[in-house]
Amino acid sequence: MHLRDVRRRLPVLSEPLPPDRTRRILPLAEGEAPTPKIAVWEFTLACDQRCLCCGPRAGKARADELTTDECLKLVDELAELGVGEVTLIGGEAYLRADFILIIRAIRERGMTSTLTTGGYGMTRERAEAMVEAGVQSVSVSVDGLGPEHDRLRARPGSWSRAFQAMRLLREAGAKISANTQINRLTIDPLEELLELLAPAGIHAWQVQVTVAHGGAADHHELLLQPYMYLDLFRTLDRIADRCEELKITLTPANSLGYFGPYAYKLRRRQSRAGHYLGCQAGIAGVAIESDGAIKNCPSLGGRNNVGGSWREHGLRAIWERAPELGYMRKRTEAELWGYCAECYYAELCKGGCTSVSEPLLGRPGNNPMCHHRALEMDKLGLRERIEWVSPSSGEPFDNSLFRVIREHRDPKLRAEHGPVQIDEPRTARADEPFGPGSPAVTDA
Ligand code: SF4
Ligand code: SF4
Fold first, then answer.
1. C-alpha span between 408 and 377 (Å, rounded)
2. Of 20, 45, 178, 247, which sits 20 to 30 A from 214 (CA to CA)?
3. Is the model's pLDDT at 223 over the cut of 70?
């Protein structure tokens, strides 16, 4: 159906849309059942770009994506479960013309409606339609300057189109933000990029690291090394100051961990505590794949994280009963291993972002991509790096496996003594649900 026809189905508003309910994430009281505050919805897997690092390996729509009527029913269930904000992602949500009906339904049910886009096929008509439907903020993905962005998108001209999308959205009346992946290509021009994003009119900038799933598992040369976090966080400290001057809210994603001297400055707007609160997958967040698979986080997938089909079970049953959704609610420090098991922040952090650690080592609970950890290694004259072990399967959200090598920081000592310690990958949670896991059998 053409967007023009779907627009005709949008009811004319005779009264204002209801106010948004809260999406604030607060610590759970003793015995309190978690309810998802944020839902991230892969509205279609169809995409007009072919990003090298795409987690779900988007391109073609999934075989049996939810129909418009099913989507509208799911919106009702999200509202009934207590969700405060629904973010449409893809693929590219705008490639389904009915996305504006879903935006309107989200708003009618008192939830905040946001959308994330690469912006390649943004048109004035699409921008105006989503604003008319009630979208409250649109985040455009911009990864580096033109050459880096176009290489990562595998689409020449896509960087210019992302900036054009921001202009069209702004002119249509949307509030716009940007999001950027940090990897080996984009780390150096971060500060220069900010100076270009600011005049484009963004109110917020989310920065996240490229994680080793989907396409990025096949392009592991792009992944940051853990020892690079020392320089990265010095850069982020300067960026935080510059964002303050520019009145842009800097939002470090949960993948960008953790603690260390800049933690409060970077995260003070995200939580009252002013620091990372631990993985919220299946606690404050829920995610939907375009065929109705319900999972714990948009950045996770596969058999460890998908709880079941919405078509078969409905949302509440999966949220309350699927073990894949309940894992983070039940886990303890006994799930930690490697350096995270002995870390000062272990009880609070529990190994950081699952979408960073699980795709690297096959199992969460040991996360080398951490600022605090890099600083502690540095104090001991050491550093850590990841080394590729075995390939991915080519499925959405699949992963390669890596090992973590701890070694001397000094090149001469490194050459003389070799590794100080090696953490090999471990078994998947689907095979060994709790505990620190066992050494994985790999092809290497
Ligand atoms: S070392 Fe592990 S547990 Fe400690 S702060 Fe970093 S990610 Fe969290
Ligand atoms: S896996 Fe990472 S992004 Fe997902 S909820 Fe956990 S911390 Fe957040």
1. 9
2. 178
3. yes
Tens digits of residue pLDDT in 129-188:
999 999 999 999 999 999 999 999 999 999 999 999 999 999 999 999 999 999 999 999
Residue 338 region, left (φ>0) first, then alpha (ψ -120 to 50), else beta? left
What are the chain's domains?
3-329 (3.20.20.70), 332-423 (no CATH)
Q: Is the CB of 285 under 6 A from ligand 2?
A: yes
Nearest residue to 96 via CA among 66, 118, 135, 119 = 66
Tokens of 412: 């001469």
Distance in Å, CA 347 to ligand 1 centroid: 9
**Half-sphere exposure at residue 360, Cβ-oriented, CA atoms within 13 angstroms:** 28
52 CA distance to ligand 1 centroid (A)?
28
In this predicted model, what pLDDT tens digit does every residue of 280-338 receive, in sequence order?
999 999 999 999 999 999 999 999 999 999 999 999 999 999 999 999 999 999 999 99
pTM of the model: 0.94
Q: How far apart are CA 150 and CA 1, in angstroms?
A: 30
**Any ligand 1 atom below 6 A from CB of 371:** no
Q: Is 372 in the pocket of ligand 1 (CB under 6 A)?
A: yes
Write out the two tokens for 150. 């176009």
What single letter denotes the amino acid at residue 239?
I
* Dihedrals phi, psi of 423, to nearest 5 degrees: -100, 115
Contact between 376 and 406 under an 8 Å Cβ cutoff? The reply is: no
- CA distance to 12, 18, 101, 129, 141, per residue, from 15 (Å): 9, 9, 17, 19, 33
By CB atoms closer than 10 A (0-12, 13-18, 19+), residue 140 is buried
- 266 in ligand 1 pocket by Cβ < 6 Å? no
Q: Is the CB of residue 213 less than 8 Å from the CB of residue 398?
A: yes
Contacts for 238 with CB less than 8 Å, ≥ 6 apart: 191
Distance 16 CA to ligand 2 centre (A): 34
Average pLDDT over the chain, rounded to an integer: 94
Q: Are 294 and 310 in contact, with CB atoms under 8 Å apart?
A: yes
